[in-house]
Design a protein that fits this description.
It contains five helices and five strands. The chain has 137 residues and is α/β, with parallel strands linked by helices. The longest helix has 18 residues.
């Protein structure tokens, strides 16, 4: 049986490592990226079955700063340019989630979590979401 592939896109290396380790212990293949361009590069390794995507990213000072990309822009970009189609996307933030909940729903996010989530709760949701996606396919 092929294990499901999950792409974790987050600029926090501690969160990324901890989440990746937890998902791998659950039997998932995990790809990681620290920003939108890294996510597109990771997609070249194959379409993921699910994407965990941070909402807030710092400005890209290495390339002149300017407007920073957020998870909503990255999700839209991946859908248009990365050809992820109906791949479920779970948005996450360490900030207060209230300002983002409605926007996440309208953007078509499959779920939204605050990063203080219990790891077991996140993996249960991931398993459930992937089972639902498989049942629809």
């Amino acid at each position: 049986m092929n294990s499901k592939k999950i792409l974790v896109v987050d600029d926090d290396p501690v969160f990324t490592k901890a989440t990746s380790m937890k998902l791998r212990s659950e039997g998932f293949d995990v790809l990681t990226a620290e920003d939108g361009s890294g996510a597109v590069s990771a997609l070249r390794q194959g379409k993921p079955d699910l994407i965990l995507l941070d909402v807030l990213f710092p400005p890209d000072v290495a390339h002149g700063g300017g407007v920073s990309w957020d998870g909503f822009l990255i999700m839209d970009w991946l859908r248009r340019m990365g050809n992820i189609g109906d791949t479920p996307v779970i948005l996450m933030t360490a900030a207060d989630p209230k300002p983002y909940l409605e926007r996440a729903r309208k953007a078509g996010a499959a779920g939204f979590f605050q990063k203080t989530i219990e790891p077991g709760e996140l993996t249960r949701f991931v398993h459930q979401l992937l089972a639902e996606s498989a049942a629809v396919a």
